[in-house]
Specification:
Layout (H helix, E strand, L loop, with lengths): L4 E3 L16 E3 L2 E3 L6 H10 L9 E7 L4 H17 L9 H6 L4 E7 L4 H5 L15 E4 L6 E3 L2 E4 L1 H11 L6 H8 L5 H27 L5 H16 L24 H8 L4 E7 L3 E6 L2 H14 L8 E6 L3 E4 L2 E2 L3 E4 L1 H4 L13 E2 L4 E4 L5 E5 L9 E4 L7 E9 L14 E5 L11 E2 L5 E6 L13 E5 L3 E14 L2 E9 L14 E5 L7 E13 L9 E5 H10 L5 E2 L4
């Protein structure tokens, strides 16, 4: 169906002000005595010349599971408010509290718009059922569109939409099939925007409170997280998902090659890279050289440092591959293991890493993807979930050579060929952050476009599912240019020892949440200063890793890759 038009001017304000003691709730919506709803009357005139009681009006109740993006945003918002409530004033909004608890929602269909029909009646709307009931106006209109927080469509489209809402789906596959059908996908996006509008308005109020609060490091971190959350929540007039391909409005490669080459030639420079969206950091190993480097950079690359703030730091950053006692992926020397029985091998091996995912080749071989520092070539590899018995799953057929004390230019990546006996037991699909099977793409764009705009996730053997944000989209240390840094929120680390090999990904911000973008792989921590090491997770880019594997004769891909 054609793209739904959005007209976001004159958005109707349904949020309830906690500070206004004259404000009350009627039929689940905020109102004030004597309020004439002139904004509704204005929209009525543009839709119909008869603002009387509608001849057709019905509420369709459906499961909230039909709106996975709403569930995702609701959980993100609750998590954020729980942590921010002790730092910043959170507006009291009973409707949002109700939203956090509900498992069913309503969508209203009308053929005539009026203030009464939009507010609801005792017949159609129970108190506190929902903070905002999306309204569909069925009218003679060529193309569906949103106007004044009402979705307009013709009768034919409404019947398809009602059928979708009445679908009694029982599992994720059925739900995604129903809401991503070409006949209703754009309508589903529009309904999701209307449903999430109250959350968006609440977050805007929190943002306003942050702007007037006293500055602190904790407040700065919460503000950054809130910016990402506001970019994630859908609402009429919002720009859609974070783009995954290079477009005109995206940031191009920002670090000039001349600047890279200049810094690579300087012995006193131990590393450099982008920090968030505004800062460019240079790390020097001699404090006396810092001022000289700074002066030269500002002079030679003046145009670049008009848009990026230069920060020269005296430290020597280094990568530390994470590998600790525990379980998940266990390598053991093949020569020693050949004398043991299958299923009883590697009991004495103490190191473990994370199985990042399964890939395949044209011959239908299955490989496990992980880090090179987790296992070496020709090592047998064992796997286990939690405290379950370890079992041999395959043999490492490729592992990039890594020097003992640091990671060289080439990616920290390895491939384990899966034994035929366990192929059928391997879950070859990728999992999104809510553990729903998803299609996915490998992200090949500029990571700067994701800074302060998208949450990133990983599922590791040690810390399982965690959420974070990209701190440095491009970091150059010891020559490698495929590294980016991720930080967790609050006191939760994004990754810890044992998570090496975890795939780092983000959701494509569609209403169905059916596609994820694989960004990279976690391989270890990055230390700048002693006190900073806990907050920074070093990751390599997945597109770089796949390109490197291809150059070494391994033409592989994820099974459900699009």
């Amino acid at each position: 169906m054609p793209k739904i038009k959005k007209q976001s001017e004159n958005l109707l304000e349904h949020s309830n002000s906690a500070s206004d003691n004259k404000s009350k709730r009627k039929y689940g919506f905020p109102y004030r005595k004597g309020l004439n709803f002139c904004c509704f009357q204005k929209s009525v005139q543009s839709f119909t010349s008869q603002p009387e009681k509608p001849t057709f009006a019905e509420d369709t109740e459906c499961s909230i599971k039909l709106f996975p993006h709403l569930i995702h945003v609701r959980d993100l918002t609750k998590d954020f408010i729980d942590r921010a409530s002790g730092v910043i004033q959170i507006p009291k909004d009973q409707s949002i509290n109700e939203l956090m608890k509900k498992d069913r929602i309503k969508v209203r269909g009308l053929d005539t718009l009026s203030s009464q029909s939009l507010l609801g009646s005792e017949e159609f709307c129970e108190p506190r059922r929902w903070p905002f009931i999306p309204t569909i106006c069925v009218s003679k209109i060529e193309q569906a569109k949103i106007n004044n927080e009402v979705l307009l469509m013709d009768e034919h489209e409404y019947k398809k939409t009602k059928k979708m809402l009445e679908n009694r789906c029982v599992n994720t596959k059925e739900i995604r099939s129903a809401i991503t059908h070409p006949d209703v996908r754009e309508v589903h996006e529009a309904l999701t925007e209307l449903l999430e509008t109250p959350i968006w308005k609440l977050l805007l109020k929190i943002k306003q409170n942050m702007d007037i609060a006293d500055a602190s490091n904790q407040l700065e971190m919460l503000s950054m997280e809130l910016d990402i959350l506001l970019n994630t929540v859908k609402h009429p007039g919002c720009s859609d998902t974070v783009k995954t391909t290079t477009e005109e409005n995206e940031v191009c490669s920002i670090i000039p090659e001349e600047l890279k080459n200049y810094l690579f030639r300087k012995r006193e420079v131990s590393g450099f890279g982008l920090w968030n969206t505004e800062e460019f950091r240079v790390f020097v190993n001699q404090e006396t050289k810092g001022r000289h480097i700074r002066e030269n950079l500002l002079k030679v690359f003046a145009s670049f440092f008009k848009i990026k703030r230069l920060n020269v730091l005296n430290c020597e950053p280094s990568f530390h591959p994470n590998f600790q006692p525990g379980d998940k992926i266990f390598p053991t020397n093949s020569a020693l293991a050949k004398t043991e029985e299958r299923g009883s091998l590697a009991r004495d091996e103490k190191g473990y890493g994370t199985l990042g995912g399964f890939v395949t080749d044209k011959n239908s071989n299955i490989y496990a993807l992980t880090c090179a520092h987790v296992c070496k070539k020709d090592h047998y590899v064992f796997a286990a979930y939690g405290d379950s018995e370890r079992e041999k799953i395959g043999e490492c057929v490729f592992s990039n050579y890594l020097e003992a004390k640091h990671i060289p230019v080439l990616p920290d990546v390895a491939l384990v060929r899966i034994d035929d006996e366990v192929k059928d037991r391997c879950n070859r699909t990728m999992l999104s952050d809510i553990f729903h099977l998803s299609k996915f793409k490998i992200f090949s764009g500029n990571l700067e476009n994701l800074v302060n705009r998208a949450f990133v996730y990983k599922v590791g053997a040690q810390t399982r599912l965690t959420k974070g944000y990209i701190l440095s989209p491009a970091l150059y240390i010891t020559g490698r240019d495929d590294t980016f840094l991720v930080s967790g929120f609050g006191d939760v680390h994004f990754a810890e020892p044992g998570d090496s090999g975890s795939v780092v990904f983000m959701n494509e911000n569609s209403s169905a949440l059916d596609t994820i973008n694989v960004i990279g792989m976690f391989f270890g921590s990055c230390t700048l200063n002693v006190e900073d090491c806990k907050e920074k997770s070093a990751c390599l880019r997945m597109d770089t890793a796949f390109e490197f594997l291809n150059q070494n004769g391994w033409d592989i891909w994820f099974e459900n890759q699009i």
